[in-house]
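I hope you will forgive my troubling you with a question about protein structure. Could you please explain, in whatever detail you think fit, how the structure tokens follow from the sequence? Thank you for your consideration; the sequence and its tokens are set out here.
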Amino acid sequence: MIVPEWVHDAVFYQIFPDRFANGDPSNDPPNVQPWGSPPTLWGFQGGDLRGIYERLDYLQDLGVTALYLNPIFSASANHRYNTIDYFTIDPRLGSQEDFHRLIGAIHDRRMKLILDGVFNHSGRGFPAFVDLLENEEHSAFRDWYHVLRFPLDAYGPGKAENYLAWWSIKSLPKFNTSHRGVRRMLLDVARHWIELGADGWRLDVPNEIDDDSFWAEFRSVVKRANADAYLLGEIWTVDPRWVGAGHFDGLMNYPLREAMLEFLVGDQLKAGEFARRVEDILSSYLPEHLMAHYLPLGTHDTPRVRTLCPDDRRLRQLLMVQFCLPGAPGIYYGDEIGLEGDKDPDSRRAFPWDETLWDVELRRYVQSLARVRKAEAALRRGAYRPVLADDGRGVMSFARRLDDHEARVVVNASDVTRAVVLPPGEAGWQAGRAVEDPLRGEARTIADSGLRIEVEPRGARLWLPVS
């Protein structure tokens, strides 16, 4: 099985389309909220595809190479996970022409775009479900969903009781994906947008379609349309079942994110515990899938990383580790400028395009990490190797080795400066070899005993052999 090579080199940027940028006010709904209003579950603020198109320079300057968009198809909610028409761009986001313009510009810049696929459930405005509500047991679509009994109650208070729905939310009726008509429709959707230029799918709650034959067929359809398309599964646990020939190329690596937060923000793990947790997670997957995982610090489903971690030093530690661990780092829009937000919908605030509101130094740091990762193949494709872990001093180090070149990261999770000795070894770490910190422009020579450095409180350092 071949995992798309481009994913190994990618820096992703996730966009919640209604909140990133408003490029065309003419498609705003009449009750559009002012940009930057406190986010709600029902309010639209006017972000659209043209807004993304107009900000591609900004994204490329940041170091982004791939975009992941939350759902863009016709729906009634601002999150658009309640799809009404899978073949139509939501008019509040623009038109098919806007999509073609955006995908063309992305590809002209040698960037990629993946779309959010919501195939476990539809919205209750989806035509098949509307027909079911209207005609009930006489509907031609009664087997498209999981009806428990009639009459259906899709709009009254409370949770869904007479049909299956995602988390029993009435507005999200669950498809019966074993039905031939449903399956054919969903596979047509998967093929359609790949043929129109999308570079892959991020699959929403795929474990709720616990049907290996569906996902094997889905993969086959997508890969026939574009063998280089990326399939990313939203799986929140360590579960290698979901990668491979019958499923996905990679997963959203929430377990690794959780370990990073527990060690560097919550002080819940000691250095050795974190090191062991990382190894346990990474060793669960074959290297080709591990490198194709998507590693986020924040998403539309989590509180903002700045809110979870208001300390600048710890936040930079998190970012350093994120960009240096195996997998493609994912930036949630606005995290690079310090945008705040609690759990959703607060984590879906509008991007403030007034630069006086930005944490400019944080953005520069993210730029630097993206630049170094692009220049250093070991950080993109190298095998992971633990170097040291010291519980008493709160210090840990790991390496990424590719052929005869090894990048090393050192993290000090304590509140005092720590002297650390990185032992000599192979792959450019022999005594007498020169190494450098590309983020600080510092060069050193490895002594017989190793490289002795000082790491500031809550600091992180990256060292590379000088070619």
Q: What stands out?
A: The longest strand covers residues 383-390. The chain has a mean pLDDT of 97.
